[in-house]
């Protein structure tokens, strides 16, 4: 009798309903990168039993996937944003969406759209929104994390601050995910790439590359 060897386990993927909600949500992440983020979140949360955290909620597109990964693994997704938008989302800039401006305050406010998006996806109870500036939240945060996903401000000040503030909260074997890593300046801004290089220099190793999404893990310490 021939025995079939089990092949490599398929990467965990969201249900078609969750994927459809992700695709319908406002935001910037392509599907292939979303699937890589989802697989990393499920793997890290399952292995550690700890929450996953994102910096850069915007309207909840990537948060849908993190919330579903948290639901699936019995943890919770945390998502940090001041909800006033990044530099490139302000009026007159490339990524500005005028429907996200609070007309009374005259400033961007992505929190209502985020809340509606997560509610409509049926994932509200699996996500905790932390409304504030990333370095301030990181400074008072006390717990360990399975995964930190950096997708906040794309200047050196902001992306570097996200890494500096949140990487110390990662569990020993947790995963660091960085979005918009473009080694070629012709493809995009360099701050996330510099964060990625800094992480490699400080003991992380690459686990996977999908588009501009890099998944990293702290390199195992040498025995002895
Ligand atoms: C590129 S968007 C996030 C996109 C989202 N992850 C998605 O996939 O749809 C960046 C977000 O980071 C937020 N942000 C920028 N700098 C921040 C900071 N220092 N603290 C908190 N949020 C910040 C902006 O308000 C914006 O909503």
How would you concisely characterize the structure shown here?
The protein has helices at 16-24, 31-48, 61-73, 111-120, 134-140, 156-166, 191-201; strands at residues 52-55, 77-81, 101-102, 107-108, 127-131, 145-150, 170-178, 204-210, 213-218. By secondary structure, it is an alpha/beta fold.
How is this fold's topology laid out?
Blueprint lengths: L15 H9 L6 H18 L3 E4 L5 H13 L3 E5 L19 E2 L4 E2 L2 H10 L6 E5 L2 H7 L4 E6 L5 H11 L3 E9 L12 H11 L2 E7 L2 E6 L6
Parallel strand pairs: 1-2, 1-6, 2-5, 6-7
Antiparallel strand pairs: 3-4, 7-9, 8-9
The chain binds S-adenosylmethionine (SAM).
InterPro entries: SAM-dependent_MTases_sf (IPR029063)
Keywords: Methyltransferase, Transferase
Protein name: Putative O-methyltransferase YrrM
Structure write-up:
Helix content is 35%, strand content 21%. The chain has a single domain (16-218), classed as Rossmann fold (3-Layer(aba) Sandwich). By secondary structure, the chain is α/β, with parallel strands linked by helices. Helix 3 (61-73) links the parallel strand 1 and strand 2 (77-81). Strands 5-2-1-6-7-9-8 form a 7-stranded mixed β-sheet, sandwiched between helices. Helix 1 packs antiparallel against helix 3, helix 5 packs parallel to helix 6 and helix 6 runs parallel beside helix 7 (191-201). It contains 7 helices and 9 strands; from the N terminus they run ααβαβββαβαβαβαββ. The mean pLDDT is 94. It has helices at 16-24, 31-48, 61-73, 111-120, 134-140, 156-166, 191-201, and strands at residues 52-55, 77-81, 101-102, 107-108, 127-131, 145-150, 170-178, 204-210, 213-218. The protein is globular and about 60 Å long. The longest helix has 18 residues, at 31-48. S-adenosylmethionine (SAM) is lined by residues 27-29, 56-58, 61-62, 80-86, 110, 133-134, 151-153, 158. Residues 27-29, 56-58, 61-62, 80-86, 110, 133-134, 151-153, 158 line the site of S-adenosylmethionine (SAM). Keywords: Methyltransferase, Transferase. One of its GO terms (molecular function) is methyltransferase activity. It comes from Kitasatospora viridis. Pfam families: Methyltransf_24. This is Putative O-methyltransferase YrrM.
């Amino acid at each position: 009798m021939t025995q079939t060897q089990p092949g490599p386990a398929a990467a965990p993927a969201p249900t078609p309903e969750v994927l459809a909600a992700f695709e319908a949500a406002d935001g910037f992440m392509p599907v292939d990168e979303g699937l890589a983020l989802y697989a990393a979140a499920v793997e890290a949360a399952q292995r550690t039993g700890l929450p996953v955290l994102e910096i850069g909620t915007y309207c909840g597109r990537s948060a849908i996937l993190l919330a579903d990964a948290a639901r699936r693994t019995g943890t919770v997704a945390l998502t940090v944003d001041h909800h006033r938008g990044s530099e490139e989302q302000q009026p007159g800039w490339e990524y500005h969406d005028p429907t996200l401006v609070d007309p009374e305050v005259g400033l961007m406010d992505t929190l209502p759209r985020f809340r509606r998006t997560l509610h409509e996806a049926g994932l509200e109870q699996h996500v905790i929104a932390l409304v504030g500036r990333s370095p301030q939240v990181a400074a008072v945060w006390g717990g360990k994390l399975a995964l930190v996903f950096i997708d906040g401000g794309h200047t050196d000040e902001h992306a570097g601050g996200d890494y500096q503030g949140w990487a110390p909260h990662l569990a020993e074997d947790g995963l660091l995910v960085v979005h918009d890593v473009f080694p070629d300046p012709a493809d995009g801004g360099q701050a996330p790439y510099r964060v990625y290089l800094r992480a490699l220099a400080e003991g992380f190793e690459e686990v996977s590359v999908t588009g501009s999404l890099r998944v990293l893990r702290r390199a195992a310490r040498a025995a002895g």
